[in-house]
Write a structure and sequence with these properties.
4 strands, Alpha-Beta Plaits, four-stranded antiparallel sheet, 2 domains
Length: 153
């Protein structure tokens, strides 16, 4: 219920103030900025992060590697190249996903190779082209409003 009230207030702010700065105010220029087609959809590349062959490291090394991995995620998100990232909560071979704001597997491979966990062989990635809502481009802006702490701290 609180979420609905929050969204109503934001949308009311868009309508009443005709604000283009509010991330919840969508207009013709937003559609172009988001890369949406006429259906409001765009192409991304999704990455499935899987357990890599080099996972036998000390606890201290694992903490350092995880911190570097998270800092890389933050950097890619700030650059608007990474739309969504997150771990799976079970202990299976599939560790997490990335959704890249790129249109080719080659571009995603280049971004993937900036990840210290990939570089170390702790993780490997399977990349797939994916077609989904251009609204995902707002996720990081909304996340920054909702978060009170940096994930790599």
């Amino acid at each position: 219920m609180r979420l609905l009230i929050f969204i109503s207030i934001l949308l009311s702010s868009c309508i009443n103030n005709k604000s283009d700065d509010n991330i919840f105010c969508i207009n013709a220029s937003s559609v172009k900025d988001y890369g949406a087609d006429e259906y409001g959809i765009k192409k991304y590349v999704i990455a499935f992060l899987k357990e890599g062959p080099n996972r036998d490291i000390s606890k201290e090394e694992a903490i350092k590697l995880q911190t570097a991995h998270l800092k890389n995620i933050e950097k890619l998100a700030e650059e608007k190249k990474l739309v969504v990232a997150g771990p799976f909560l079970d202990r299976g071979e599939l560790k997490g996903i990335y959704i890249f704001n790129v249109t080719t597997i080659e571009e995603a491979k280049q971004l993937t190779n900036t990840d210290p966990a990939i570089q170390s062989g702790s993780l490997v990635m399977e990349l797939k082209e994916w077609y989904s809502s251009a609204a995902l481009m707002s996720v990081n802006d909304i996340h920054n409003i909702l978060s009170s702490k940096n994930i790599s701290e």
